[in-house]
């Protein structure tokens, strides 16, 4: 200690004639003479011990249950135990890309992305999943086209069409009710949907939603192919010329003509594909957008499409009804399985059921159902999405629409009426993979940022 520090006077002391300090204020009965430096060290030790006691209190509040799920859930909660070295093994974010981030509210388990390499790996993961979905979509479309050709090969031109009540009401058709009108209306709805959820949604959620749409349609086309082939219905238009099964290259050319609507398929009837496609797009608006007025407009617009499909004799009425039921069922079942997969991973850190067989619930007993949960969870990279959802990065608005971004935990603790603790899923948990229904400009900003970066690189070169 220097002479200057020796001459400093403590606020709790006075100087005597012998240049010695005496205590002049009594703080307690057992007070002792404490210099300023020792007082600072003592206060730091007290603060550290208080913080340790605070963390220990959080630990002691957790029920002492021998259940690994409680430990896994604690890593996703705001006030759980602090897990320093426990990172998600299935994620592409490595140890050197993450740092612990304990805020003023002692949010436990929050991580922060330290560099952009982790983001690039996450983007690459979602792009690869989108590529897999596109491959499945191409397979589903080609499979449907091939089975349509096989079904048309079993059809004889001139067969009497089936009796249909709606067709009997509208005997004479207006000239504008044709295949081009139907395809144009559905194409307009598709473009409008892609613009809304592609440009005005967080970027990674937009990629995921396009992946979901492709997976649902590919599964639907595969199932519909079987229905088309097993039963050949006569065409509502008796003058239709059916396609014939020929060589591989000729069938591929016929598939191209079917996809581009250059030919009319006579037996492409069972479960209207146009109706199911329109229904899936409509449900995207119903479940992913909170604007009520747009939902009403989309609802009546889709009703008009259904009516035009039926009245134009493009399908039988029963085909349109089955198309609506199948389209809605595929959308709802897919998202039901998606919710189960997300909740399983948030609790068990795995897509597999904890209690397989007859030890678990009805959904856990079915192996095929568990297989679909595992497939959807991996095809959507849901494990990576939930792992990133617990990271704290205010600048990554392309991932989550929450404000501030990723600031909440996935699982929160609540108390029942009997003062018993239980776990519930937070709003951020659902927003991380389903959005919050609001309009976000983060994707447009991301695209403009990429354009500026590319222009800057070109100018330097």
UniProtKB/TrEMBL annotation:
This is Sphingomyelin synthase 1, putative. GO terms for cellular component: endoplasmic reticulum membrane; Golgi membrane; plasma membrane. Its EC number is 2.7.8.27. It is a multi-pass membrane protein. GO terms for biological process: ceramide biosynthetic process. It is found in: Membrane. Residues 265-335 form the Sphingomyelin synthase-like domain. It holds the Pfam family PAP2_C. Belongs to the sphingomyelin synthase family. Its main location: membrane. Keywords: Lipid metabolism, Membrane, Sphingolipid metabolism, Transferase, Transmembrane, Transmembrane helix. The keyword Transferase applies. The chain crosses the membrane at residues 126-149, 181-201, 292-309, 321-342. Residues 1-34 are annotated as: Disordered. Residues 8-34 have a biased composition (Polar residues). GO terms for molecular function: ceramide cholinephosphotransferase activity; sphingomyelin synthase activity.
């Amino acid at each position: 200690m220097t002479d200057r520090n020796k001459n400093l006077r403590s606020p709790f002391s006075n100087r005597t004639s012998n240049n010695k300090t005496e205590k002049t204020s009594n703080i307690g009965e057992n007070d002792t003479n404490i210099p300023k430096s020792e007082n600072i060290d003592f206060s730091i030790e007290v603060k550290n011990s208080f913080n340790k006691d605070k963390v220990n209190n959080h630990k002691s509040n957790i029920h002492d249950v021998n259940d690994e799920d409680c430990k896994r859930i604690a890593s996703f909660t705001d006030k759980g135990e602090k897990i320093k070295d426990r990172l998600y093994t299935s994620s592409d974010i490595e140890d050197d890309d993450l740092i612990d981030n304990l805020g003023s509210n002692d949010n436990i388990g929050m991580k922060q992305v330290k560099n952009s390499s982790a983001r690039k790996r996450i983007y690459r993961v979602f792009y690869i999943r989108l590529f897999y979905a596109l491959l499945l979509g191409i397979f589903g479309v080609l499979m449907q086209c091939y089975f349509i050709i096989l079904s048309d090969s079993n059809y004889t031109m001139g067969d009497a069409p089936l009796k249909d009540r709606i067709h009997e009401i509208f005997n004479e058709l207006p000239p504008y009710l044709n295949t081009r009108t139907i395809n144009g209306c559905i194409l307009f709805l598709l473009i409008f949907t892609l613009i809304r959820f592609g440009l005005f949604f967080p970027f990674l959620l937009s990629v995921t939603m396009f992946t979901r749409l492709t997976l649902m349609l590919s599964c639907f086309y595969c199932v519909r192919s079987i229905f088309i082939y097993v039963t050949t219905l006569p065409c509502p238009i008796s003058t239709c010329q059916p396609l014939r099964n020929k060589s591989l290259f000729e069938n591929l050319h016929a598939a191209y003509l079917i996809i581009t609507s250059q030919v009319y398929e006579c037996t492409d009837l069972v479960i209207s594909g146009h109706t199911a496609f329109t229904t899936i797009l409509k449900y995207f608006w119903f479940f992913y957008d909170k604007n009520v007025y747009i939902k009403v407009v989309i609802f009546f617009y889709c009703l008009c499409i259904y009516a035009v499909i039926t009245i134009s004799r493009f399908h039988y009425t029963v085909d349109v009804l089955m198309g609506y039921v199948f389209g809605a069922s595929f959308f709802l079942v897919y998202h039901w399985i998606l919710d189960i997969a997300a909740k399983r991973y948030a609790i068990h850190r795995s897509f597999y059921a904890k209690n397989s067989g007859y030890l678990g619930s009805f959904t856990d007993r079915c192996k095929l159902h568990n297989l679909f949960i595992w497939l959807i969870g991996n095809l959507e990279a849901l494990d990576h999405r939930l792992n990133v959802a617990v990271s704290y990065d205010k600048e990554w608005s392309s991932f989550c629409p929450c404000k501030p971004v990723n600031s909440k935990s996935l699982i929160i603790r609540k108390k029942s009426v009997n003062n018993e603790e239980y776990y519930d899923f937070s709003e951020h948990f659902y927003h991380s993979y389903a959005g919050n229904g609001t309009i976000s400009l983060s994707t447009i900003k991301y695209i403009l940022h990429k354009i500026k970066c590319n222009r800057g690189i070109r100018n330097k070169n």
